[in-house]
Amino acid sequence: MDSCLPSKLLYFYCLVATTIITITCSATKIQILHQQANTQFIKTSCQVTLYPKLCMDTLSPYASSVQKNPTKLANAALIVTLKAAQSTLDAVLKLSKMNNLAPREARAITDCVENTRDSVDELRQSLAAMKNLEGPEFEKKINNVMTWVSAALTDEDTCMDGFEENAMNGKIKGTIRNYIVNVAQLTSNALGLIKNLSSF
């Protein structure tokens, strides 16, 4: 029996193991490079928005699904915005059920509920329209999406208009303002990314 056989087998197994480790490391490196490229794409795309840091913070978790697709990025921005708008609506509805609201506050909150509900509906319409952008009527479809997102932004601004008076309860005003400002900035970012689709 060849006394070198165990050594040859050991060498063979070491070679196989080294090859597997090398392939695994290479695949991991490629994945990391792809992820970095996708994240860089989002960072660059966010520069067209008014709030690039917020854009990057909220959309970077979508890097692997968005990859380098501007339509998917705009769609992700709308999804993030719709979630925020729905959370805002839930919060304002909760505030509207508070006791001891002054008549002026109750009226402003009621109006804000309606404005925010309209905003949620318009964002939903935008998301639905984004699914059918391809085709000869791209410009018309993208303009419709921009119109709905712009209307949502207007509704959010209108909500805040009702709380401009100093006589309003500071805590209620501050809470609603925090929600509305966040969702308005997200809506603005989504609109910027959607407008950018026209340049591709």
From TrEMBL:
The answer on whether this UniProt entry bears the keyword Membrane reads no
Entry's Gene Ontology cellular component terms: apoplast
The protein's matches in InterPro entries, at most eight in alphabetical order, are given as: Invertase/methylesterase_inhib, Pectinesterase_inhib_dom, PME_Inhibitor
Q: Keyword annotations for this protein?
A: Apoplast, Disulfide bond, Secreted, Signal
Primary location class:
secreted
**Entry's Gene Ontology molecular function annotations:** enzyme inhibitor activity
> Which residue windows are coiled coil?
none
List, alphabetically, the CDD domains matched: PMEI-like_3 (cd15798)
Pectinesterase inhibitor domain location, by residue? 37-193
Where does it live in the cell? Secreted, Extracellular space, Apoplast
Protein name per Swiss-Prot or TrEMBL: Pectinesterase inhibitor domain-containing protein
Among its keywords, does the record have Signal? yes
The UniProt similarity line reads: Belongs to the PMEI family.
Q: Say which species the protein is native to.
A: Fraxinus pennsylvanica
> Which domain of life does the UniProt lineage start with?
Eukaryota
Q: Please give the Gene3D superfamilies that the UniProt record associates with this protein.
A: Invertase/pectin methylesterase inhibitor family protein
